[in-house]
Specification:
single chain; alpha/beta; Rossmann fold; 2 domains; 18 helices; 6 strands
Length: about 375
């Protein structure tokens, strides 16, 4: 019998579709908006129609093949996806300008102002999102999540002759991308309320358009039945607090989880800022689920030094949809149940069979057959 079950949110309870839409729109804004690179006139709107969103996502993520490539390598956070896809295009854009200018521009950390200044030198550059994969050809595609997030430091040294260390998670460029993503996801009004400013007008946001992956009544009953069996329930998600809290509360799911075991990207980013040498701490790093096991009030230094795998790990179950979730659970010695309601759906079955997931579920409702048999 499991004592504790820790759930991912995206691909388990909520569809990832709107998060991926917001990610694609964030990359598009960074490339085309007048306040960023402004590569081409009249290509950016804060109020795209649904068919335009579909087309933008199709281009940016190449029919989701780029998303699948990143997820296979442990990239699970939308902020990281925005950073990698945009930075790949930024490298191609810098190759199209005078090398002396590119070297000078790269010699300083990237800011919103410096991105805006660059637009005067790259007008006419035509992004080719298919080229994303060519950026990583020289690595034979073998990089894992941690290596991918710092990869552009070595890339810039090799291709531009500039030694830098600012291509990483919690860098200025990463924070710009994550902020633009948040603005799309929250919408103008909520972003202004949370951050105190807006870059643009008119964004409606996706926060209140979330799609549950099963009928809500059935999800609530599942969680209630698990509580009856005296199993503690927690969350380990790559979403920041508000992105998790609003939809789960609106759907009547949040109160089933112990507050001390609800761990979000907000907790992870705070820990990374306190212990920058330990970053990145997002999944597949075990920190998110480890803190869910120890409890949110555990000191970060204790969590980061906790001996792994955990002795009683067989009493803990992680439920997630991604390779990153599996790898985090594996490092902790926890059991893992894969849900086939993520990006690639049933196609992910073979991947999780190969990895050796303890359970593979068509959707989270099949957890009953695992816990209540």
């Amino acid at each position: 019998m499991y004592q504790l079950i820790l759930f991912d949110v995206d691909g388990v309870f909520l569809s990832e579709e709107r998060c991926f839409d917001a990610s694609a729109l964030a990359v598009w804004e960074l490339l085309y908006a007048p306040h960023f690179l402004h590569i081409r006139d009249n290509s950016f709107s804060t109020t795209p129609k649904e068919e335009e969103i579909r087309e933008i996502r199709k281009k940016v993520f190449q029919n989701d093949t780029i998303l699948d490539w990143m997820k296979d390598r442990g990239i699970n956070a939308n902020w990281d996806m925005v950073y990698l896809v945009f930075t790949a295009q930024l490298m191609h854009a810098l190759k199209a300008v005078e090398k002396s200018y590119a070297k000078e521009w790269l010699s300083n950390p990237i800011t919103e102002d410096s991105l805006s200044e660059l637009k005067e030198y790259i007008r006419g550059f035509d992004p080719d999102f298919r080229s994303f994969f060519s950026i990583f050809d020289e690595t034979n595609g073998k990089l894992n999540r941690d290596e991918l997030l710092v990869y552009f430091n070595s890339y810039v040294k090799e291709h531009f002759g500039v030694e830098v260390d600012y291509f990483s998670r919690i860098s200025t460029l990463w924070e710009i991308g994550s902020s633009v993503y948040q603005e799309w996801y929250f919408g103008e009004e909520l972003f202004l309320e949370e951050e105190g400013y807006t870059r643009t007008k008119g964004k409606q946001g996706f926060l209140f358009q979330e799609i549950p992956l099963a009928p809500l009544a059935e999800l609530r009953q599942l969680l209630a039945d698990l509580q009856v069996k005296q199993i503690a329930l927690g969350i380990g998600t790559g979403r920041p607090w508000l992105e998790m809290e609003v939809p789960l509360r609106e759907m009547g799911l949040l109160d089933y989880f112990h507050p001390n075991r609800v761990i979000t990207a907000t907790d992870v980013v705070l820990a990374e800022k306190q212990y920058p040498k330990e970053a990145p701490l997002g999944k597949p790093h075990p920190y998110t689920y480890l803190l869910g096991f120890l409890g949110k009030e555990a000191a970060d230094n204790i969590a980061l030094q906790y001996p792994l795998p955990i002795e009683e790990g067989h009493r803990i179950l992680v439920v997630g949809d991604s390779v990153a979730d599996f790898l985090a659970a594996q490092k902790l010695g926890f059991h893992f149940a894969a849900t086939l309601t993520g990006l690639t759906g049933q196609e992910a079955r073979g991947k999780f069979e190969e990895l050796g997931a303890d359970y593979i579920l068509d959707d989270v409702r099949q957890l009953r057959s695992v816990v209540m048999a």
